[in-house]
Amino acid sequence: MSSLLEVEALVKRYGERTAVDGLSFTVGPGEIYGLLGPNGAGKTTTIRVLTGLLPPTSGSVGVAGHDPFVEPLKARAVLGWAGQETTLYDDLSAEENLRMACVLARVPRNRIRARVAELLETVGLADRARDRVAAYSGGMKRRLHLAVALVHDPAVLLLDEPLVGVDPQARAHLITMIEGLRDRGRAILLTTHDMDDAQRLCTRVGIIDRGKLIAEGTVEELQAGLGERDLLRLEGAFPQRFEPAFPGGLGAEVLSAQEGELLVAVPNGPRALPAVLAALEDAGHPVDRATLERPTLETLFLRLTGRELRD
């Protein structure tokens, strides 16, 4: 899979302060890459370099093969950006906002009317197309903000906290839109502080702290790399302080043995569960109910970045 977004050994300094420190990652077509980190980790600075708003101190970035600081027009032609703050004109209607965005993005004039109508339908604002944006709710503005980033049908999308401050209905609609863009082969870089959103949406995640990439991969890969184990909660006719014998290769450890319940920690719970159940069955203690609890992205994130508050 060729990459549409490339960051290689990126460094960005502000005087004596290093905001981004040797950051490298890639995003391919049909992939959502979650760039996650505490406040001040360097996420927004990275996005500003990718958009061409800031020059790198060293290293390089590429948007579909174009350096956004050296070839800004070529990079912007394939790049859509929806930042944390909505960039809409409140005194204009949604339709007028999108028309203006089309002109600025050099959408062919004979395509503008159809493109505006298409996007309004996509974001669920067709029935409010001529209302002034000032009358819109936060969720409606967030949907229109994303539509503005999509007017030129970009191959690469930078979404900086796209789901912040929206109600559950708007969140569900936006998530469906983002998933649809992924399925149509867009390369998407997404930042968020909501670990549940990241775990649902992201193909891979990169966790940065103090400007450095400290972990990268799928949730399962991060779990394995950190030695995190799954928890099996097993219910059955177990005696108090029951000590079952499990196959040595499972790496299973009994954390708690109470009457009627066992808590067993294992690496790769889905793989280990059948062997655990079989061992208990062979020991004459069949399981009535089994629950698998896996470490979440949030627990992995906190394990890597710590729990201290960040400004």
Structure in words:
The model has no long low-confidence stretch (mean pLDDT 92). This protein has helices at residues 43-50, 72-77, 94-104, 109-122, 138-149, 168-183, 195-201, 219-225, 269-282, 297-305; strands spanning 5-14, 17-27, 31-36, 58-63, 79-82, 156-160, 187-191, 204-209, 212-217, 230-236, 253-258, 261-266, 287-293. It starts with a strand and ends in a 6-residue tail after the last helix. β6 (156-160), α6 (168-183) and β7 (187-191) form a beta-alpha-beta unit. Helices cover 33% and strands 27% of the residues. It is α/β, with parallel strands linked by helices and 311 residues long. It has 10 helices and 13 strands. Strands 5-6-7-3-8-9 form a 6-stranded mixed beta sheet, sandwiched between helices. A 4-stranded antiparallel beta sheet has the order 11-12-10-13, with helices on one face.
Largest sheet: 6 strands, mixed
Mean pLDDT across all amino acids: 92
Query: What percent strand?
Result: 25-35%
Number of strands: 13
**Distinct helical segment count:** 10
Q: From N to C, what is the helix and strand string?
A: EEEHEHEHHHEHEHEEHEEEHEH
Radius of gyration: 24 Å
Residue stretches low in confidence (pLDDT < 50, at least 5 long) are none
What is the strand arrangement across the widest sheet? 5-6-7-3-8-9
Oligomer: single chain
Shape: elongated
Q: Give the termini distance in whole angstroms.
A: 38 Å
The helix fraction, in percent, is 25-40%
Q: Which structural class fits the helix and strand makeup? A: alpha/beta
